[in-house]
Design the sequence.
């Protein structure tokens, strides 16, 4: 079974689109902090797409 993208956290919102909620942040610290909180809330895993974007995926 494939994972489902639950949310995207990025510092470059103009480079991201799609049906998942997108959280735009200003810096690396906010990127990590926001992704960590969403990971816990959504009971999911964070995957680094690139230096500016993290994807939160449910593998259940």
Sequence:
């Amino acid at each position: 079974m494939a994972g489902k993208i639950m949310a995207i956290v990025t510092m470059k919102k103009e480079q991201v689109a799609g049906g998942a909620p997108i959280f735009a942040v200003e810096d690396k610290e906010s990127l990590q902090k926001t992704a960590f909180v969403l990971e816990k809330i959504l009971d999911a895993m964070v995957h680094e797409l690139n230096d500016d974007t993290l994807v939160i995926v449910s593998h259940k």
Q: What stands out?
A: The chain has a mean pLDDT of 95.
